[in-house]
Amino acid sequence: MSYGWAGNSLEIDLSQGKIEKKQNDTKLYEAFLGGKGIGSKILWDRVPPQVEAFSSDNLLILATGVLTGTPVPSGSHGCICFKSPQTGLISYSNMGGFWAVELKSAGYDTVVISGKASSPVYLWINNDEIEIRDASHLRGKDTIETARIIKGELNNGRVQVICIGPAGENKVHIASIEHPMTGDSAARTGPGAVMGDKNLKAIAIHGTKDINIARSPEFMELCEVVFQKSGQLRESLEPEGWCAMMMAGWDTAFFGNADDKQPPQPEFEDYEKKNLDFLKKYLVRETGCYNCTVRCQAWLHLPEATYYYPRCESFAFSLGCKIPDLVFSLKCCNLCVRYGLDIVSTARTIAFAIDLYQQGILTSEEVDGMRLEHGNAEVAFTLIEKIAQRKGFGDILANGTYQAARVIGKGAEKHTHLVKKQDISPDFFILSPGSALSLATNDRLDSHSMITSAISPDMWALPRDAYIKGGWWLYPAEYEKYLTDDYLASYNGIAELTYYGENVKIITDLAGLCWWWTGFLNYTAIKADTIISLISHATGMDIDEAKAISIASRTRALMRANDVRLWLRKKDDIAPEILFDREPTRRQQQLGFTKLDRDKFSGQLEKYYELRGWNSQGVPTAETLDELGLDDVRQDLEERGFYKDE
Amino acid sequence: MGKTILVNADKCTGCKMCELVCSFHHAQTFKPSASRVKVKVNSREAIFTPQVCMNCEVCPPIEVCPVSAVSTDEETGVAVIDHAKCNLCRECIAACPYNAISFEAGGNEVIVCDRCGGDPECVKICFPEALVWAEAEEPSAV
After folding, report:
1. Which helix (H) or strand (E) holds B131?
2. CA nearest to B27 within chain A
3. Fold for domain A8-206?
4. Which of A73, A208, A290 lies at the smallest CB-CB distance from B31?
5. CATH of domain B3-137
6. Rounded to whole angstroms, how far apart are CA atoms A292 and A278?
7. What is the pLDDT along chain B (142 residues), one digit of tens a residue?
8. Do B43 and A182 count as a contact with CB atoms less than 8 A apart?
9. I want to staple A115 with a disulfide (CB 3.0 to 4.6 A). Which of A13, A59, A404, B105 is the partner?
């Protein structure tokens, strides 16, 4: 019997229509636990650098965490790993909801999908029965419709569906994989495009097998402790749940349009009251993922009978198009979900196009006769459709702002805001040096969840001291010395904070938990030591802190090695230029932010490399790789000449 | 009448924690199909309804059982299955209006809520209070 893990994985070759069930290599799972750890190992072994994102040799890997499907609150997450068409790097997207639990209940920790089907298909995983089914009738259908049709066909109310929309089918580089009617998606860096390239329209999953725990009394006892600690986390979201925070920060957000001289515009002020009024009007019910009580999702009934689950950055279109109306922004998001598009990148791409038009870099003739103006809702609706369908000018934008800027030329690059070819979220906290360093270095590229943990003491109603004393900060006591009065603008200790925060989040991912519980921005209910104990009790392995750090470091080093053998260099580990060059807005200054300093930033970057055991060029050293048991990786990097100057 | 499980679907967020703890309590595994409480999901309208034995005054499974294996517990009023008599025809599953009787995948008997002997695990875990343990007479909670 397998404890913690389901014990098996699936190999699906869509070119051959071959389905193979494999027993897990126990050693591999003990070394990488699950999620992106397993995903990055398989990608390292089987996707060499010359394989393009849109190649039948690229893999789409679904990987659950070791605690997925257990009663640890939020144990519902799984990772989708692939080589990204948007960045050309190894990438992953983490998704909650219900699918990963269903996959594990079906008896699989990992599903590796290779090849390309000759016509649209969907995958039906029903315990031991796996089927590749025809999906030609689903071609061009939006994500919600696709899930509805599949659930009807399979006639099983407990089936979970993840699928792509028209954007994924058209291989739009910013296409997402959606988990319709749950409010979840794997959106960033284009997993939907990879799935579309494989002609795989959807994956339907149902499982009824046992998930077993090695030391269940201890495990349940620890879960009980976590439940007891979770009150504050839930209460912090009263009365209107996460939804009330949906727009939090939109008066301080950072969209960076060329004519954003001094935002916020008056219309964006007083957002807290506006949010509550909005919710009173449209909120139907708060919901959440499997096995989680945070209620970070909400079911809204918008005018014209559109239901929508808002998510972070739901305000992005309001900022990008300068239309301070939440209903407009949510309508855009709803369109993105239906087409299967990443909300942040789509909003950024549209803002970028409007910006270029306003600066005279694009003319009406080049954009299909449209007039790309701020404040015009139709512009956004039309561009979303054009991007998803790759129609006219949308075909250029569909490859993301990095590639679009290179096609358009005429200095368009200056109007992009990227980290390693990916558009950044419009969050204001990237102005904090700690967050900016995390943004520049983490393997998730732009991720506001990854970069916020250090600054969480000032994001909540509790005074900073009470927050720390209450034990809500995810960092251990020795990190408290970095919380000086000016720490939001300080460079002191940011490498250490980034390193520790990143390790915790890697372990969270490998466990299949949600960052909400393990220290994203809020009341940390599951701290690192608890995650480690939970994994130990679940699997029966004995993991201590040192071992956990080495597992996290192994995953990180492997992803880094893979990225450096692709194209990543030290010069790419940098926050977007705009953070160094432009004065923060008045409101951002009031919060204590200043613009970033290149020299200080660079000093901390090198310190971060040192903590990670990477050399001054950001390449994991031979010693580090050997220590982590990654000798094959060291050998590969050696052969490619990464260590010849040493 | 004593205490019973009252369901308020309006408060349910659909997290299904009740299914996990129920299956663990009764079957020592994490397996929703072994749970005595089931969350019915209407994803088109986001309505989540925990379904569990509702102590119906007239219990249809009793009426349809061909071998008289279903009865109600005198104290709690919930349906009880006599597994010695049960011939696994599953008529009771079809007859229960609340889908409270089910068959565990890979299992060998029909299952129904037993209120955990008066201290239901699902109620203890339900943070939104969609499931509460209260006197059956309180109509406001239903």
Report:
1. strand B131-135
2. A210
3. Aldehyde Ferredoxin Oxidoreductase;  A, domain 1 (3.60.9)
4. A208
5. 3.30.70.20
6. 25
7. 588 999 999 999 999 999 999 999 999 889 999 999 999 998 888 899 999 999 888 999 999 999 999 999 988 889 999 999 999 999 999 999 999 999 988 888 999 999 998 999 999 999 889 999 998 764 443 3
8. yes
9. A13
